[in-house]
């Protein structure tokens, strides 16, 4: 098992990619902290893990609120004694509109949850990991943060920020046995993606079509990459952005 006896935390762990990650943390031998703004969803995932003989703690947290993030990390340490791995996965969309029509509150929501949330999580995770002699963090970015995405300027900008933040944090901690990487998913079959498909006409067909594999990914396929990067199998990898995207960036056509 890749995370045997580790303590692993995931934000946004109540649904989608975060839920799949929490369940895979458990299957790979970790004690799991399932953190989500939706406390009931987090509790349901933790309950499934505990019912399966695992060790899981649910924490209700808004990652955009510093005091709540500090309390989340403290609760993890209080419950399990340490924090070895974290996947900072919670994010919020800023809606779907041309840049010039984006409302200030939508811009701000994407920055607060998607970008500042990742910064706050690392701000409180890193000192714990440094104090115990090391750890690993995987932040969830997006292909939108690499190649941009029409109608999603707040989200794309925030995800581009997550990538820069990941590399900066990796540089600051590379000599301290603390590896920090990012995973950039393409289109993954989750409720968040369903919301997008229902908000933008034609989005489903277009989204499937841009993947060279001509399909969406499954949450489990992202969780696999997260677990790999958090595990000792990735011991010489830091500051890396791993695309899990069914070949979005390769050209499936002959030009
Ligand atoms: N689904 C995709 O196609 C896709 C593509 C690229 C990147 N991503 C990224 O993957 C991650 C997970 O996406 P998903 O599709 O599984 O999302 P989702 O909407 O299915 O689930 C997100 C979870 O995060 C929680 N959450 C939302 N705001 C929060 C906050 N402020 N604090 C704590 N928890 C909060 C929600 O309650 C929910 O349980 C996100 O970072 C997203 O940007 C997803």
What can you tell me about this protein's structure?
The protein is α/β, with parallel strands linked by helices and 255 residues long. The chain has one domain (7-187, 220-244): Rossmann fold (3-Layer(aba) Sandwich). The chain contains nine helices and seven strands. It has a seven-stranded parallel β-sheet with strand order 3-2-1-4-5-6-7, sandwiched between helices. Strand 2 (31-36), helix 2 (39-51) and strand 3 form a beta-alpha-beta unit. The mean pLDDT is 96. The structure holds nicotinamide-adenine-dinucleotide. Residues 11-12, 14-18, 36-38, 41, 61-64, 89-92, 113, 117, 140, 142, 185, 187-188, 190-193 line the site of nicotinamide-adenine-dinucleotide.
Keywords:
globular; Rossmann fold; 255 residues; binds nicotinamide-adenine-dinucleotide; alpha/beta; 9 helices; seven-stranded parallel sheet
Give the secondary structure arrangement, pairings included.
Elements: E1 7-11, H1 16-27, E2 31-36, H2 39-51, E3 56-60, H3 66-80, E4 85-88, H4 104-132, E5 135-140, H5 144-147, H6 153-173, E6 178-185, H7 191-199, H8 203-210, H9 219-230, E7 241-244
Parallel strand pairs: 1-2, 1-4, 2-3, 4-5, 5-6, 6-7
Specify the number of helices.
Answer: 9
Indicate the percent of residues in helices.
40-55%
CATH class: Alpha Beta
How many beta-strand runs?
Answer: 7
Terminal-residue CA separation: 44 Å
Our count of domains comes out at: 1
Shape: globular
Structural Rg: 17 Å
Under the CATH scheme, the architecture is: 3-Layer(aba) Sandwich
Given the helix and strand composition, which structural class is it? alpha/beta
Q: Approximately how much beta-strand content do the residues carry?
A: 5-15%
Largest sheet: 7 strands, parallel
Order of helices and strands: EHEHEHEHEHHEHHHE
In this entry the ligands are: nicotinamide-adenine-dinucleotide
> Stretches where pLDDT falls below 50 for ≥5 residues?
none
Strand order across the largest sheet: 3-2-1-4-5-6-7
CATH topology: Rossmann fold
Mean pLDDT: 96
